[in-house]
Amino acid sequence: MTAPVSQDALFPAAGTLPAADARIGDFIALLKPRVMTLVVFSGIAGLVLAPGSIGFAQGDLHPFLALVAVFCIAVGAGAAGAINMWYERDIDAIMTRTRGRPLPMGKVEPAEALSFGVILTVLSVGLMGVALNWAAAFLLAFASFFYVIIYTVWLKRRTPQNIVIGGAAGAFPPMIGWAAATGDVSLLSIALFMIIFLWTPPHFWALALFRNEDYKRAGVPMMPVVAGEKSTRLQMLMYTLLLTPFVAAPYLMGACGLAYAAGAVVLHGIFIAAALRVSRDTDYKSARAMFGYSIVYLFALFALMMADMAA
Fold it and tell me: Which one of 18, 133, 220, 257 has the lowest number of neighbouring Cβ atoms within 10 Å?
């Protein structure tokens, strides 16, 4: 996965497009497509790593149903993003990183954004339950609830631990993909959850370091704002180190072989080195580099798992 591109590159300004096309682009932007990409990819990893096969033989998960599961994960994640934008439209208007979103720009009405998110949430959960199974549907619904209610409404504006606890919402997709294929969860799917859960603080705090002034203006108590940059940098290193046994888990549990193990050692070694640089630096160059690499890192880690399984 490449580093995130700018919102303008994905969605040109409304004035440069016909009105109907601009309107569609604004609603697509509500789904946070850049975030959705990694969510969908990790959900696919859960599907692929689950026991059984995707194919046309008896007992396999039919490829069409696998596509339906991925579609539901994508739509559910996007719907939660739309509701998040509806609730946070006041602080999005203040922050440089988010003030170009459709709601602060007045391109979409708040009621439209909320209705859009709620309808898509209900549709994605319902379709997952009917087409796949209700265990996967429950996990999808709970992930949406966790992101919208626990993280967005309850935690984000109240505690510097917002992204630590709230990050669980983004860690559910591999479990959802696994449940879609099997109807249950397992220790390996929990390990996949933990990889994303422990990856989230160093990933997001790297962003928060060089966007610190944005969060101060918006009154969001991100870790650098509340605890200071030095403490944040040390905690980023701590979470990166805590991540290590869970990165090793797919190999240690026998789900992946030496190809994954070798690649994971390289990828995670670079991640630790990046965290060490951030912990020692006093500028934001290393934090920017770590943020960019963290996206590539997680994408590559799950790609390695799936490639190893296919070998």
Answer: 18
